[in-house]
Amino acid sequence: MENGTKEGDDMQVSKRIENLPPYLFVGISKKIEEMKAVGKDVISFGIGDPDTPTPDHIIECLCQASRDPTNHRYPESIGLPELREAIAERYEKRFGLTFDPGEEVLPLIGAKEGIAHIALCFIDPGDIALIPDPGYPVYAIGTMFAGGESYYLPLTEENEFLPDMDKIPRQVAEKAKVLWMNYPHNPTSAVADIGFFERVVAFAKKYDIAVLHDGPYADIYYDDYRPVSFMEAPGARDVGIEFNSLSKSYNMTGWRIGMAVGNAKIINALMRVKSNLDSGIPQAIQYAAIEALRGPQDCISKHNAVYQKRRDKVVDILNSIGLEAKLPRASLYVWAKVPPGYNSTDFVSKLIEETSVVVTPGIGYGKYGEGYIRVSLTTQDEQLDKGLNRLRDWYDSHNQNWNNS
Ligand SMILES: *Cc1c(COP(=O)(O)O)cnc(C)c1O
After folding, report:
1. Residue 390 neighbours by CB distance under 10 Å
2. Residue whose CA is closest, atom 5 of ligand 1?
3. DSSP letter, residue 221
4. Which tens digits make up the pLDDT trace of 146-159?
5. H helix count then E strand count, the chain
6. How far is the CA of 245 from the centre of ligand 1 (A)?
7. Is 225 exposed, middle or buried (CB count within 10 Å of its CB: 0-12, 13-18, 19+)?
8. Which residue among 136, 230, 331 is best mutated to probe the pocket of ligand 1, counting the most ligand atoms within 8 A of its Cβ?
9. Residue 34 Cα to chain centre, angstroms
10. Is residue 117 predicted with pLDDT exceeding 80?
11. Best probe residue, ligand 1, of 109, 113, 181, 186 (max atoms within 8 Å of C-beta)
12. What is the band of 1 on the pLDDT scale with cuts at 50, 70, 90?
């Protein structure tokens, strides 16, 4: 080390840490800090984190459970039997699917935890994971941590942001261990139907690939659209599991609780990894989750009505200022095109500098996210209106022509 004098400066972190891609938001976060430091009123459409609190009845249950000393001790890493039953019941009510709570259900410390750890169940060094691009970054990071390689499946607008499985070379498919899917999709908000999932099941059976479907937006939907579960596809249980979460459905991102359901062999493998790494979900939080899953569900439609109003406003304004966007049928995001002549990072930087409004550049979700921005609908109404007005004024100040800039 050039300027190191202290002992220990020569210590080497692992390749898996060195190989981590630079965190996209470091640059943006730095910029936001600078803007705030000089007194700018920064409005963020950046993160997908529900802005309203966890519903009262869930918090009430959490408070009570936290006072019970039996919940102060190590939980079982497989989760309370009652929680596994409550998860199975919810899947039955929501999708008409039955799961064996003992074998086909596993609570997680948030879906992200399971998504990252499941790579250890399937990926040996050199193995391939098929991963959507753009997509949630954890699928590829988990793969890399396990020593595997990501083969990216481009999601393009022409193909409605669904992967074209026919384009996967046979040698790649034969080497692949897992196929990641995520519908409703973050960041594009695309949705998939049963017909698509059936094709996924057929592909997985042909090449003996495990399908890992990530579905935390199944409860965030608009108009009369209702997302389906991957597990509804005939044969899905033979090849795959679905990750889900209480984070988005019940505004519980801060409590860290999610689940996986599906193929018993995959669930068991994930359970074995987890039981060697973590000691379960704090039990009071498990009781809160049971209350969320079994209690009144009206919070879901209430929250969706709020997001839907925001969605309509955001899509309307974006289209009126030449940032082409479609109405999402589900999820918390609007996926919009940047004007010709910009890449997503340049556009986002300029937007932040000139308006103090923050959105996420599409490139942060992969190469095929380039040319887009993601606008989250989890910004409080007043801030949202203010942010959208700023966007419109900004466009006007460019004489309603992005090429002039
Ligand atoms: C939010 C999100 C998750 C993480 O959910 P947690 O249960 O909070 O860990 C997983 N996948 C996608 C695509 C997400 O957007």
Report:
1. 17
2. 111
3. B
4. 999 999 999 999 99
5. 15, 12
6. 7
7. exposed
8. 136
9. 28
10. yes
11. 186
12. very low
Mention every residue, 6+ apart, whose C-beta is less than 8 A from residue 6: none
In this predicted structure, which of 44-53, 168-177, 189-198, 364-373 has the lowest mean pLDDT?
44-53
Instruction: Give yes or no for a contact between 291 and 61, defined as CB atoms under 8 angstroms apart.
Output: yes
DSSP per-residue string spanning 150-177: EEEEE--GGGTT---GGGS-HHHHHHEE
Ligand 1 atom having least distance to the Cα of 332 = 15
Name the pTM for this structure.
Answer: 0.95
Identify the bridge partners of residue 213 per DSSP, sorted by sequence position: 181, 242
Higher pLDDT, 202 or 33: 202
Domains of the chain listed by start with CATH number: 15-53+299-398 (3.90.1150.10), 56-294 (3.40.640.10)
DSSP per position, 323-374: --BPPPSBSSEEEEEPPTT--HHHHHHHHHHHH-EE-EEGGGG-GGGTTEEE
Nearest to 215 by CA among 247, 170, 240, 245: 245
State the distance from the centre of ligand 1 to the C-alpha of 142, rounded, in angstroms.
14
Task: Name the 3-class secondary structure at 242.
Answer: strand
Q: How far is the CA of 57 from the centre of ligand 1 (A)?
A: 23
Atom of ligand 1 nearest to the CA of 185: 13
What number of CA atoms fall less than 13 Å from residue 384's CA on the CB side? 21
CB atoms within 10 A of CB 275: 13
Q: Write out residues with Cβ below 6 Å of ligand 1.
A: 48, 110-112, 136, 182, 186, 214, 216, 245, 247, 253, 258
- Residue 260 bridge partners (DSSP): 106, 243
| Residue among 106, 108, 112 whose CB has most ligand 1 atoms within 8 A, to mutate | 112
CA contacts within 13 A on the Cβ side of 8: 1
Measured by CA distance, the residue closest to atom 15 of ligand 1 is 186
Q: What is the dihedral of CA 127, 128, 129, 133, to 10 degrees?
A: 150
Pocket probe for ligand 1: among 245, 249, 255, 256, the residue whose CB has the most ligand atoms within 8 Å is 245
Structure tokens given for 212: 């890992």
